[in-house]
Design goal:
Elements (H helix, E strand, L loop, with lengths): L2 E5 L1 H18 L6 E6 L3 H16 L4 E5 L30 E9 L3 H10 L7 E10 L11 E6 L5 E6 L9 E6 L4
Parallel strand pairs: 2-3, 2-4, 4-5, 5-6
Antiparallel strand pairs: 1-8, 7-8
Length: 182
């Protein structure tokens, strides 16, 4: 399998710090702001951001995990049933500024579904999107991130692979690979 490195661990760390400083600038003391990691891969990235924010600002930011599996527009069209992941939100988002966090923005379907799913926890004042990788030429929905680490041009035949040390990989890294032909 051919793969091309997009970001290495050092570059991911720099982007993580940049995100934290941008969030601190835009959200003051985080009193009215919450962060939600989109399942299944957003929570790993979210936890890194929350930890780094606390390290830099000394502020504990309200955060949780949101699963939008049953809100997806393609949920019933699959040949196999999707498995839901844990939703872990122990606060209301009514009137709050919500920052949705995910590793890769691809078609925009997960973000659209997440917006439907989060309404169960209240109506937010504002919603922002933070992603590590923006695959900018592949959208099905007109969704753009407010914060992005890197923008990449990819084909539908390619896949963005995110590797986290926390998941057993040697180092944090992001790769572009060709999808395996079946």
């Amino acid at each position: 399998m051919q793969k091309r490195l997009v970001l290495d661990q050092e570059e991911i760390d720099i982007i993580l710090k940049r995100f934290c400083h941008q969030l601190i600038e835009n959200h003051d003391d985080f009193e009215n702001t919450v962060l939600l990691g989109l399942q299944p891969r957003g929570p790993i990235f979210l936890d890194k951001i929350v930890e780094k924010l606390q390290e830099i600002s000394g502020t504990k930011v309200a955060s949780g995990y949101l699963d939008a599996t049953f809100h997806r527009d393609d949920f019933r069209r699959r040949d196999f049933p999707l498995k839901a992941n844990e939703t872990k939100i122990n606060f209301l988002i009514e009137g709050k500024k919500v920052i949705l966090v995910d590793d890769v923005l691809y078609k925009g379907r997960s973000v659209r579904a997440a917006m439907d799913a989060m309404i169960a926890f209240g109506r937010p004042q504002k919603v922002e999107l933070l992603v590590l990788v923006d695959r900018k030429l592949t959208r099905d929905y007109p969704i753009m991130p407010d914060y992005f680490g890197v923008r990449v041009n990819t084909l539908d035949t390619q896949y963005v692979m995110v590797e986290w040390e926390d998941k057993g990989f040697e180092k944090d890294a992001i790769w572009i690979t060709e999808k395996v032909a079946e």
